[in-house]
Amino acid sequence: MPVKTLTINGQLVSAREGETILEAARDAGIRIPTLCYLPGLSAHGGCRLCLVEISGSSRLQPACVTKVVEGMEVQTHTERLNAYRRMIVELLFAEGNHVCGVCVANGNCELQDLAAEVGMDHDRFEYLHPNRGLDASHDRFGIDHNRCVLCTRCVRVCDEVEGAHTWDVAGRGANSRVITDLNQPWGESATCTSCGKCFLACPTGAIFRQGSTVAETVRDRSKLEFLVRAREERQWHV
Amino acid sequence: MELAELLAIGERERSSRRPVQINCCIAAGCLSAGSEAVQRSLNDSVKAAGLQERAQVCGVGCLRLCSRGPLVRIEPEGDLYERVTPEQAPGIVAALTGGHADAQRGDPDSPFFRRQVSVVLENCGRIEPERIESYIAAGGYQALFRALHEMTPTQVIDAVSRSGLRGRGGAGYPTGVKWSMVAKAPGPRKFVVCNADEGDPGAFMNRSELESDPHRVLEGMAIAGYAVGAEQGYVYIRGEYPQAIHRLQVALRQANRLGLLGGHVFDSPFAFRIDLRIGAGAFVCGEETALMASIEGRRGTPRPRPPYPAEAGLWGCPTLINNVETFANIPGIIRRGPEWFAAFGTEKSKGTKVFSLTGKVRHAGLVEVPMGTTLRTIVEEIGGGSADGTPIKAVQTGGPSGGCIPAWLFDTPVDYESLTQLGSIMGSGGLIVMDEQTSMVDVARFYMEFCMDESCGKCVPCRAGTVQLHRLLTKIIQRRAQADDLRRLEELCDLVRHASLCGLGQTAPNPVLSTLRYFRHEYEALLARPEV
Amino acid sequence: MARLKLATLWLGGCSGCHMSFLDMDDWLIELAGQVDLVYSPLADVKEYPENVDVALVEGAIANDDNLHLIRVVRQRTRTLVSFGDCAVTGNVTALRNPLGLAREVLDRSYLDPGNYRPQLPCEPGIVPVLLDRVQPVHAVVPVDFYLPGCPPPAARIRKVLEALIAGRTPMLDQSDLKFG
What we know:
The complex is a heterotrimer of chains A (238), B (532) and C (180).
Chain A: E1 3-8, E2 11-16, H1 21-27, E3 51-54, E4 61-62, E5 73-75, H2 79-95, H3 110-117, E6 134-135, E7 141-144, H4 153-162, E8 167-170, E9 177-180, H5 197-201, E10 207-209, H6 222-233
Parallel strand pairs in A: 1-5
Antiparallel strand pairs in A: 1-2, 3-4, 3-5, 6-7, 7-10, 8-9
Chain B: H1 3-15, E1 20-25, H2 28-32, H3 35-48, E2 55-60, E3 72-75, E4 80-82, H4 89-95, E5 104-106, H5 111-114, H6 132-137, H7 142-150, H8 153-163, H9 175-184, E6 191-196, H10 205-212, H11 214-228, E7 232-238, H12 242-257, E8 273-279, H13 288-295, E9 319-323, H14 324-336, H15 338-342, E10 352-359, E11 365-370, H16 375-382, E12 392-397, E13 403-406, H17 416-421, E14 430-435, H18 440-454, H19 460-477, H20 483-499, H21 503-507, H22 510-525
Chain C: E1 4-10, H1 16-22, H2 27-34, E2 35-39, E3 52-58, E4 61-63, H3 64-76, E5 77-83, H4 85-89, H5 102-111, E6 130-135, E7 145-147, H6 154-165
Parallel strand pairs in C: 1-2, 1-3, 3-5, 5-7
Antiparallel strand pairs in C: 4-6
């Protein structure tokens, strides 16, 4: 398999052909912030947090879908990118109702961690305080749309790993919502297998396990990775 | 079908024509003003006057001066009647034999018509869009025959390249280059897609082109199919254009019946089938990757490029996507040669461009001018200045992706590069004129509201950023904003422009940025004084 | 050198941030040696004084009393610190915003439950009037420094106060920026 060499933040990095910048950076120990990306699922390219600068290209490129090219020079944390990332996280906080103090995911939330990572000490945008509702009709799980960042990890994990495709997106723009089946209550969904992969994939407290406390809301994402690895690479010995 | 048969159809059509044609516009603008009843009444009047042998009433495509519809034009004399009512029809017919017409007469020699050049619209308003014979009599489908029987696919692409034609959807990508990319892309199946999802507020060029001369677009697509090696084409057209959809359906049926589309086109081994796909009202589906997702039956959201459609488009196959007007340019280029086409326009922008001229302008309608024509010519000569004499302040080009160009820059020639340099874009051809009474901040907010409503919601900068931009603009308009908010507005524009996933988001800030560039004082005048 | 004049305020919040403040335990004694606490729910002062050096503002802007007070505080204070998540983001206090404007919130709270003779509280001059929207402090007046947390842990508060007392700009690293 041909190997490509490139530089990320001036550091010489090698990568397999066909790998993305994000994968190459991870292997080299360089963290690029992500939100909609989840290993094992198809890339979505929607959160725009992993945008990087590539020498010779005027456009910013999402690291999660951009393939490495020989001799590529990538910058992941320029002042401009840092400023953009903070604004994107601020936009997310202003758009939903993210109240960490009373959230079941407090301490286990990728959005909360991102806010700290991008140095967001306050939100410069006006809070929209939408009233997006909550669906607790399922026996074991629930979804609070107020905490949803529309990363579509649940949609993809349900379709691509579980194969049920219970979740999808309805509406557009700020009115977008993840829905179950044809917008029926989750508890009435005919396709949901109650496998809980959407709960494992959710980066925030949007999809939660009923009756779980904050301390119990720990998501073991390695379970998803294990499933994907077992299926794609036929490796299931831990 | 052989060439002789095609020519015979044209000949039959021409020889069956009456000496006088009473052309009644039946494009959507005039239809909505009641031209269907006018056409009926004209027919009755011709019969009543016993002039059936001398005159015939034809329902034709757009006669261009839409603001004065319903329009009736007498050929070959060229007399023009405006705002015609069914009651005025007998008078118009009587005038053919020396009687008096009480209908309002228009001036067919006014600058509105005189300054226009017809390339794409050469048949528009002259042929009957629902009759293929009418198109064939005007030389239709000869270019397709020629491409299939006298040219190799490479020669066709070469001709398109040499013509200098660039994409008329707005971005201006060289059409020949795009075609050759698709032609060279490996793959057993390829597709040709016509983007007719015209959604910019105030834009109706593509609709008029399809309503007036649908076969021309189909012929262009078939030539493209031959050139790139595709056997299947789709016209993706928005559901809000029922008239254009109907005429396309009629045209497809006719072309299939005559063997001009389908299997063995012109008795050659080339097969090309075209299907319609009707959009359900999402503006973002005009973005090529969202459009393809929609054709495939999925949710119409864009995806990151690369891969570009030319490599991996519909169902992963190489796909050529061009705008309606781009395809409509093709038959002329093949029939008359690339040099003929390249003689129009400027060094870098060849040919003509069709605009829909609207807003506070005296003569609103469909306009075709050579590239490089100045905005002043379009707005002041063709458009006749503002409707009530109020000074004109700016013109908006390119819809929600474009910008406002102030009156003091009206000597700018209309071509891709010049408009981009001014912070606007050529766009697909919407041209909205604004006078001194228009608040540019209101204009910016109008477009932002449009983008906010039309954002698909996939990427954060566009979904949430446009909402915040709209709020900031509202805050400014309500005089609650301070200098800090203006700074935030600019920062956020920068983010949405550079971080959004697709063209919709990337260009959404343009109306704000261009009005800030030329009319910053209007924003500043609305700022509240800081609270003490 | 003059002792630093410190104020702490309790606007629309639960006073948890002040509890966390008290959690600084014995360092409070050291603090008392370095600052004058000129205004605080922990001190019986009626009028917000002039020339305050540092004010820690807990809570969001939820009623007209909060609004009036924060404007006074801003005028009379050199360094205004948004103290805790309610001040920084609106947080729990702003949970009512999705319900609607003040009247809808009051209806929902006092009338909808339908107890015996439900009525809306209305005592002008005694019960402050609710604002239609709860806002974070920086949406109303300029804020100099943000101290997030629900509540901010005592160590984080101390870090910020130490810096301010020493005349430095406080620097919070990633672990100290966490909401919640």
